[in-house]
Amino acid sequence: MKRMLLLLFVIASAPAWAQQLPHIVILATGGTIAGAGESSVGTAYTAGKLPIDALLNAVPEARKIARLTGEQVASVGSQAMHDSVWLKLAKRINELAARPDVNGIVITHGTDTEGETGYFLELTVKTNKPVVLVGAMRSATAISADGPLNLYNAIVVAANKTSGGRGVLVCMNDNIFSARDVTKTNTTNVATFQSPNTGPLGSVLDGKVEYYHKSIRKHTTETEFDVSGVQSLPKVDILYGYANMNPTLVDALVKDKVQGIVIAGVGNGNLYPTVEERVKQITRDGIVVVRSSRTGSGRVTLDAETDDKALGTVVADDLNPQKARILLQLALLKTRDPRKIQEMFFTY
Ligand code: SIN
After folding, report:
1. Are strands 169-172 and 175-178 parallel, antiparallel or unpaired?
2. Do domains 2-222 and 236-347 have the same CATH topology?
3. pTM for this model (two decimals)
4. Rounded to an integer, what distance in angstroms lies between the CA atom of residue 144 and that of residue 66?
5. Measured between alpha carbons, how far is 253 from 257 in angstroms, rounded to an integer?
């Protein structure tokens, strides 16, 4: 606690000229961007080792464009990300963004689930101020670490007025993505973040931000999701489809009392016949089943090869399975009616 107060004091006690700059709050959660390893040339390291002040000290240039303050919200590799950190982040961002002295927020995050956290925040934060997630593929101690430039770029994006009102953004490898559409596509490459269906919204280069597209799906202030009084999220799990899929996987989740299941189906979200039979039964019992696809891009279309009316299923549109899970969790806070939930999948 003492260390945190000292850190906040050191970061906040900026010279007078810096007080004129936009105030950007950095919320740190861990990840490779804060990772440290024994070797500078290997891929082995421990995520979430470095505190926020060490990350900021690596980009002294950022203090010329923004007044920076920071908070350590979590210190985890993002494979360990969970609902309670999402809820804590959303609530804290809503508090900070309501303050007139805060101009934007940057969240440092592991890349494994960065897109998921981004989409959760896209649906639950209530602000038009810039909210930008950033991570790194190489640890802070690696040769050619990408974290410092990514963090600098994210601060540039958050400090730029044109970034407001575009939903939650993910800034990686000089690109600016919509949190709804972005996903990690490669295990280790620095160009891993892509939006397969839509492409990036813009780019940040040489400290300059340029936007080329705008997401038209409803987000942030336009959504119906309010998590201010929410302590936990409904239990929703994902099943991965494959040839000769084992239908008892569905039974295992039902036994575990899920409220919803997302199936990463084959092709256009199609289901193995015996899985389809089970799905037909459980939707009658009130479990909401969403058909997404394991293909990595494209829309899952309603009542196409699969008869959603007969099965009682919902389609994920172009959300990948992990994003569909988040929307289903939030939807289940409001309703269990598959028709209303389908409408949400066509809206957000
Ligand atoms: C993590 O997601 O925390 C580990 C991987 C990364 O940040 O790149």
Report:
1. antiparallel
2. yes
3. 0.94
4. 24
5. 6
Query: Phi and psi of 245, rounded to 5°?
Result: -60, 140
Which whole-number Å values give the CA distances from 20 to 67, 130, 199, 200, in the listed order? Answer: 8, 18, 35, 31
Q: Which one is catalytic: 32, 108, 117, 183? A: 32
**Side-chain-side CA neighbours of residue 292 (13 Å):** 26
| β-bridge mates for residue 235, sequence order | none
Q: Determine if ligand 1 sits within 6 Å of the CB of residue 110.
A: yes
Amino acid at 56: L
Residue spans of the domains in the chain: they are 2-222, 236-347
Residue 103, ligand 1, Cβ within 6 A: no
Active site residue 335: no
pLDDT tens digits for 327-346? 999 999 999 999 999 999 99
What's the rounded Cα separation, in Å, for the pair 101 and 292?
41
The number of beta carbons lying within 10 Å of the beta carbon of residue 322 is: 17
Domain 236-347 annotated CATH 3.40.50.40: yes
Rounded Cα distance between 6 and 2, Å, is 6
The class level of CATH for 2-222 reads alpha beta
Cα dihedral value 175, 180, 184, 185, nearest 10? -90
- What is the reported pLDDT for 13? 56
Best of 82, 112, 151 for a ligand 1 pocket test (most atoms within 8 Å of beta carbon): 112
Q: Which atom of ligand 1 is nearest to the CA of 135?
A: 7
Within 8 A by CB and 6+ apart from 115, the residues are 170, 179, 182, 183, 184, 193, 322, 323
Is the model's pLDDT at 178 over the cut of 70? yes
Which of the two residues, 12 and 98, has the higher pLDDT score? 98
Residue 319 CA to chain centroid, in angstroms?
Answer: 12
